[in-house]
Amino acid sequence: MMVRKAVVALLGAALLVVSGLSFYRSRHLREPLVAGPSVIRVLTLGDYFSGVKGTTNDAHIYVLEGREPGGTILLLGGTHPEEPAGRLACWIFAENATVERGRLLVIPTANRSASTVTRLGGAYPPDFTIPTAWGGQPFRMGDRWSNPLDQWPDPEVYIHYPTRQELAYVDVRNLNRTFPGRPDGTLTERTSFAIMELIRKEKVDIAIDLHEAELQYPVISTIVAHEKGQELAALASMMTSASEGFSIGVEYSPPGLHGLSHREIGDHSDAISLLLEAPEPFLDATRGRTNRALLLTGRDEFVRRAGERGLLFEKIDANGWPVDVRVGRHLSTLLQIFEVWSGEKPERAVAVSGVPRYEEIIARGTGAFLKDPKAAPPARVNYE
Amino acid sequence: MIVTVLYYLLTAAIAVLLIRNFLKRKDWQEELLYIVVLVPFLLRLLRLK
Predict the structure, then answer these.
(1) Which of A79, A108, A302, B19 is the most buried (most CB within 10 A)?
(2) Do residue B46 and residue A20 have CB atoms under 8 angstroms apart?
């Protein structure tokens, strides 16, 4: 009997080691980002609020500054890391953008904790790779919510601060439900607070949060705008739809729905807050196999059938929604927002060159604009 | 923070109970069941998942 118990215990130990190694590697996968030509310094959220200093969520802030003074725009990627087009768009800006005028602050991994875990029970792949001419760049898959290793347990009901609105318990770890945050709250709330401090101290004009959405979700292929940014969003939407090769709508941020960046950043700072949504079939509940191919191609037979039955809020065909399309949409929409803003407020203009638009991303692929860290000076390579 | 520590203590207590029950079992299928159930508790205690 002792021999049998020893064999079973050994089987358990093997299971523990194999799964533990897999989780450890996934949590610690290093994602290189080569600071581009306009990056003059790399700060962290801890420089704005000591409550996140040295934590998993002490996220990098890439400061891109132009020769001429102007306004300041903040890009947030990885608020929900399982929506990778936003992170990739931030990568492309930080590695490629030349800022002619004003300042750009780029946070590619706003909730780093959430980027180190995948959805429990979701059978997500632990990572994915964007093909490049130099071999491919790996990224952590990530989740919508902070890692329970960094914030645990969840309450029965999450009560949002400061409105006391009751939200789903798990959203206590959702960075896009904890704005404006609080200095003595959970890690996720403190991260929101740190971002708010950055916005207030740097006098950010526009904060843009980059997301993706399932096709069953009505808020999709759109710019969600706080009332302070409605004209800007409407004009950028028209310009984008008229000249970039795809259509994007505008939704107004509901005043009664709290915790979201498009609502709270606008309410609790002088900044205009916008949120962009691109379609990501990987997130749809009716999807088939949840693997890297689905994440990168956005092709899924079951989601397509749902579309044929009129159950979706965005079209889908056999071509799916490839990651290049999603990244390209974000990039072009961002550039249009910059141009409209700079036209309306020349004294607070932010002028950027060197960033590919939708058609260029479709033609050459996202990987064509990711820099090889091995070919870059080590001092310019940062790890997210 | 205090609640988090309490949850880790609870996790450790449940892991000890699972190991104790594993040692008491006489049927290999039940032993295997206890071992499989134990793994996620150990992964959390080791801060791996």
Answers:
(1) A108
(2) yes
CA A206 → CA A13, A36, A47, A103, distances in Å?
A: 52, 21, 20, 11
pLDDT tens-digit profile of A200-219?
999 999 999 999 999 999 99
Q: Which amino acid belongs to residue B8?
A: Y
C-alpha angle with apex A109: A207 to A361, nearest 5 degrees? 80
- Spatial distance between the Cα atoms of A349 and A332, rounded to a whole number of angstroms: 17
> What is the β-pairing status of strands A98-107 and A68-76?
parallel
- φ, ψ for residue A201 (rounded to 5)? -70, -35
Output the pLDDT for position B1. 86
End-to-end CA gap in chain A: 50
Report the alpha-carbon distance of residue A222 to residue A209 in Å, rounded. 12
Name residues whose C-beta falls within 8 Å of residue A191's C-beta, 6 or more positions apart in sequence: A45, A52, A57, A59, A110, A111, A113, A175, A178, A181
Q: Is B5 on the interface with A (CB under 8 A)?
A: no
Cα–Cα distance for residue pair A127/A205, rounded to 1 Å:
34
Amino acid identity of A98? T
Q: What is residue A253's DSSP assignment?
A: P
Beta carbons of A164 and A151 less than 8 angstroms apart: no
From chain B, pick out residues whose CB is under 8 angstroms from the CB of A20.
43, 46, 48-49
| Domains in chain A, CATH or no CATH each | 29-383 (3.40.630)
Each residue's pLDDT tens digit, A311-325: 999 999 999 999 999
Q: How far is A194 from chain B (nearest CA, A)?
A: 20
Would the CB atoms of A5 and B23 count as touching at under 8 Å? yes
Which amino acid is it at A76? L
C-alpha A115/C-alpha A106 separation (Å) is: 17
pTM of the model: 0.96
Residue A2 pLDDT exceeds 90: no
Beta strands in chain A (DSSP E): 32-34, 39-44, 60-65, 68-76, 98-107, 127-130, 137-140, 158-159, 166-167, 206-213, 222-225, 249-252, 272-279, 351-353, 381-383
Neighbouring-strand partners of residue A98:
A353
How many Å apart are CA A355 and CA A347, to the nearest integer?
22
What residue segments make up the domains of chain B, in order of their start?
Answer: 2-45
Residue A82 near residue A228 (C-beta atoms within 8 A): no
ipTM of model: 0.95
Per-residue tokens: A280: 């990501």
Q: Is B48 on the interface with A (CB under 8 A)?
A: yes
